[in-house]
TrEMBL record:
Protein name: F-box domain-containing protein
Residue stretches making up the F-box domain: 5-51
Cross-referenced SUPFAM superfamilies: F-box domain (SSF81383)
InterPro entries the UniProt entry points to: F-box-assoc_dom_typ3, F-box-assoc_interact_dom, F-box-like_dom_sf, F-box_dom, SCF_F-box_component
One Pfam family from the record: F-box
Species annotation: Cinchona calisaya
CDD domains noted in UniProt: F-box_AtFBW1-like
Amino acid sequence: MKSSISSLPRIPDDIIIEILTRLPVKSLVRFCCVSKFWQNLITKNRVFIHSQLQNSVNNLSGFSNVLLLNSDEWPSHCTCHENPDIQPQKLAEEVMRASNNLPEVYRLIFRQGKFTLAGCCNGIICLIKYCINCPSRDEKFVVYLCNPALHQFRALPPGNFQALSYISRTSLCLFFDQVSDDYKVVRITPGCNFWLVDIYSISNNSWKPFSSEIVPPWSQPQYLWERPVVYNGSAYWLGCCIENWRSYILNVLDLFQERIGEIVIPDGVQHPHLDFFQGSLAIIGWISTRKKGLWVMKEDSRTAAAGGGGGGGITWTKQLVLPSAITFYKPIRTVGVLFTEKYLMASFEGTVISYDFKNQKVEDQNGVILDGSKRHEYVVADYVPSLFSVIPPPLAEEEFSHT
């Protein structure tokens, strides 16, 4: 028997690695105990981790929906008598339970409440807890990162702006920095005539504030219309002028050069929403009482090469108009960030449908029913399990040893 085993040809390491990149995350996590080499490959080799994620996305065959429950309490009503980590951890565990019966990639439908969804990027979920009545300033605004597939969950350090009285107006977004190969959280806090910005880095486990306050180029104060998104190294977010609620501004903040500008949005667009479409930044909004349109942002190549970010050289191209027959539905999300090009909507009764841009078809979402009276509280994110850790590098190996 020994001679027959020893005579078997040895499989080259590169072939083994290629096979492993095509396996689901839950299998790879179990394989960490095979050998030290496999553990380091699966938990630390960034090329391997990126390849595994890309294979999961490339092999996407379909979507399933996961409805995540959340506390009904809003910030003005919640207290801190319970463990503040319990609810986000339960949500992460719910994602894990769903992944046992669903495809590798699926759509999270999350109802905002005591906790809000700040972003979902490559398997990492960012949650925010607001608690206006909490006595401790560190408890009023807490940011969580979790990777359900790795059973990882942690609260981030509070950072430098925690003592400010207007922290409740803070907005965040999660993004992947390709330059530093790191996941980061951008926190934007509006003041009276300026913005305070700091960025959290997983690799450094710390918040780094911008060198100075960001003074907007406009004179009118504004409210954040919705949370920011990051595109090509800049943070974009829509603001609504306080003095004119029908006037919207698209802010653009260069995260590397620390400068801010504004971009004029398409004429006549009301109640705009910022998202992605076919890899580009897009705005979708009402163009009449019955129709919605979608515009894709184009940036002049010369402006981009010169380190654009101030809004110059920007044009908008109308890609499509949603049929008036379906615009009576209340949208809970527009276009999928990574995987789909579908407009998700909920009726007054809470029934969820989607409009397929490519095929121009309306599709039922497998009988998903929301609370129709509170459908505006729902957000949606595309989720794919990944091996990217939310634990800073010095602690990552210890965390994996307990999974």
